Amino acid sequence: GNLKMKRVKRPELRLHGQKVRLKKKPVILAVSVLVLIVLLVSVSVHAASKKHTQKVSAGVAEETAAAVEETTVAEEKLSEEETTTAEEETTLPEVQTTTAAAPQTDGEGEYPGCKKVYLTFDDGPSPNTTRILDILDQYGVKATFFTICSPGEENEESLKRIVSSGNTLAIHSVSHEYSQVYASIDSFKEDVLDMQQWLYEQTGVTTWFYRFPGGSSNKVANCDISDCINFLNEQGFVYFDWNVSSGDASAKCVDKDTIVQNVLSEIGSREEYVVLMHDAGAKTTTVEALPEIIEYLQANDYMILPITANTKPVQHRHS
């Protein structure tokens, strides 16, 4: 009836025919060491990963900051360029305005001490204008043309040639009809500005020189010439009359020799002469007289000049 406990033998391992007894404690120790190694490797890997993450984060932060700085600089530069462009666009109209400003005359004349003659032609352009320009080119001199509105290809080409060849383009009126030009001060103003605009459209030149139809001393105007003069002065125009007349304004055709005599008899020792002639279509004898007039003036040491902003105005009356 007594029970005996049967002892279980540990498994044996034979190695090269020899019995090898497995011991429990070394196995536990080996397992523990293995676990410890795994833990240490895990901690090391985690630390390295964390360090790498911090480094990458820092790099990203630096790149982001650099990108923000570049964007800010670019925006500031763009803003600066836009501001500069806006300022340039703002000042542009002022430049355009100043280029169209009227000439200022000092009233003292040019080339002091020299005898000067200003040949001026009214009522063109016409076919005679081309002939006169040819003569001026032949003698190497310049003149001034007080023009009226005469549309037509040949006339418009003459206007362009007046400018391109160094002569002076000036205003006489749109129509030269006294009843229209001088109907009122408003009609006078309109006539002057319309003619200035028309000449600009034909030549690209804004002229500020003016001659009254009939002169500033005419007795045919319905409006007050003083008011007209005040308007011209206020706008910046300079008007010219004359102190030598060729006499070719007569309704009948004046012969060439009379025109030459009329001009040369009035030119003496004064410093400045403004000669009134005409280049309308009927004034063929004026064209014929011109070479003889020019030859006399050149032979007697007169300077033949176009009117400019430096020319002392010859005026019959003032406001």
Structure commentary:
- This protein has 319 residues and is an alpha/beta fold.
- It has helices at residues 24-99, 127-139, 153-164, 178-181, 185-203, 225-235, 256-266, 284-299; strands spanning 12-15, 18-21, 116-124, 144-147, 168-171, 209-210, 238-239, 244-245, 272-278, 303-304.
- Strands 3, 4, 5, 8, 9 and 10 form a 6-stranded parallel beta sheet that branches. Strands 1-2 form a two-stranded antiparallel ribbon. Strands 6-7 form a two-stranded parallel ribbon.
- Strand 3, helix 2 and strand 4 (144-147) form a beta-alpha-beta unit.
- The protein starts with 11 loop residues before the first strand and ends in a 15-residue tail after the last strand.
- Mean pLDDT is 80; it is low at 1-24 and 71-101.
Helical content class: 40-55%
- Please tell me what the overall shape is: elongated
What's the end-to-end separation, in Å?
164 Å
Low-pLDDT stretches: 1-24, 71-101
Mean pLDDT: 80
Please tally the β strands and state the result. Answer: 10
Helix-strand blueprint:
Elements: E1 12-15, E2 18-21, H1 24-99, E3 116-124, H2 127-139, E4 144-147, H3 153-164, E5 168-171, H4 178-181, H5 185-203, E6 209-210, H6 225-235, E7 238-239, E8 244-245, H7 256-266, E9 272-278, H8 284-299, E10 303-304
Parallel strand pairs: 3-4, 3-9, 3-10, 4-5, 6-7, 8-9
Antiparallel strand pairs: 1-2
Helix pairs in contact: 2-3, 2-8, 7-8
